[in-house]
Amino acid sequence: MSTVGHSGDELRQVRERIDAVDMEILRLISERARCAQEVGRIKHAVVGTGEEGSVQYYRPEREAAILRRIKERNPGPLDGEEVARLFREIMSACLALEQPVKAAYLGPEGTFTQAAALKQFGRSVRTIAMPTISEIFREVEAGSCDYGVVPVENSTEGVVSHTLDMFLSSPLLITGEVSLRIHHHLMSLEADTSAIHALYSHQQSLAQCRGWLDRHLPHAERVAVGSNAEAARLASQQPGSAAVAGLPAAEIYGLAVLAERIEDEPGNTTRFLVIGAKDAPPSGQDKTSLLLSCRNESGGLHGLLSPFVEHGISMTRIESRPSRRGIWDYVFFIDIMGHQHDPKVAAALEALKRSALLFKVLGSYPVAVL
Which of 262, 120, 242, 228 has the alpha carbon at shortest distance from 188? Predict the structure, then answer.
């Protein structure tokens, strides 16, 4: 009995400490929120002076720097990614006190693009579903949304060409990137896979799960649709069908999950871009995206890229796309490490500007905080 009594006293003491810590956390969050309100008041005063161009409520470079610092100094036992997620939500709620952020994403509700928007901005963001990538660009260009979130590449299936093509004519800039681990799940109204004769999903998701589907649903017709959430909506209305989508879609559309994590590659990851009207200042760990073209001649591409070598700039990605100006005429989408205002990057870009037929900086932005 004495051991039980001692354990009960120890448990009560720990719970009292937890209660005290909770009250201190609440006090500090409230203090942070009041600071955010004060920042909002100062920025609103600047707007009142007519200097709106200098006011930016959401600061991607500042948030990225804060999250990196939190992860670096995290003492545990929670892992860095979980701690960063908690702080993202605190920052999101505080930012909403200054000025709510509106972000367009590829809908309907429940898509991976919406999940990327929530990871970037937190759950206090106002997400606006759009039916196509083109309309996301248009909404942000028109000022109806502050930012847009669009998929750009998948680690298994490669580039999303429609997103890249939009930058050929859009004035928008890349202000951030989001890296999202993608887990696909099979969901249906049916209780058994033997009853499934039609399968809906986005074409990229079908490709990312091809091996699993070949083994377990070889006779089901595969129908590509605009998004995974749309696939889940269709499966919720049609007995004998199923969808490949994320868990939020199963919850939204009332589907049972028949199989989890059916993607063929366990490290399946999609990169999303955040697009907006204003460039992001340096955060200390940045990327710059470029749109370039060169003369169609021997050594043309080598000559175009040589300034990166000369100035010690690391290139992390290059993609070619038809320029739409002529047959066999291509443009190159290139990502490099560093911010366009970094001295070495600025020198390389100046050299590129002199030699490239087409030179366009699509934006400098913080590297994704995982």
Answer: 242
CA-based nearest residue to 95, from 146, 54, 141, 47: 146
Label the pairing between strands 102-106 and 126-130. parallel
Reported as a pLDDT band with limits 50, 70 and 90, residue 159 is confident
The first and second tokens of residue 4, run together, are 């039980």
User: What's the pTM value of the predicted model, to 2 decimals?
Assistant: 0.86
Burial per residue of 334-361, b for 16 or more beta-carbon CB atoms within 10 angstroms, e otherwise: bbbbbbbebeebeebbeebeeebeeebb
Cα–Cα dist 205/227, whole Å: 9
Residue 303, SS3 per DSSP = helix
For residue 128, what are its two tokens?
A: 């606006």
- DSSP 8-state class, residue 329: -
Judge if the upstream peptide bond of residue 343 is cis by omega within 30 degrees of 0.
no
Per-residue pLDDT tens digits for 134-151: 999 999 999 999 999 999
Q: Is the peptide bond before 248 cis (omega within 30 degrees of 0)?
A: no
Q: Are 113 and 105 in contact (CB under 8 A)?
A: yes
Residues constituting the chain = 370
- In DSSP terms, 276 is beta-bridged to 173
- 229: pLDDT strictly greater than 70: yes
Calculate Rg over the CA atoms of the chain. Answer: 24
Q: Pairing mode, if any, of strands 147-154 and 198-202?
A: unpaired
Q: How far apart are CA 316 and CA 287, in angstroms?
A: 9
Which amino acid appears at position 314 of this protein? S
> By CB neighbour count within 10 A (0-12 exposed, 13-18 middle, 19+ buried), where does 92 fall?
buried
**Distance separating alpha carbons of residues 103 and 121, to the nearest angstrom:** 9
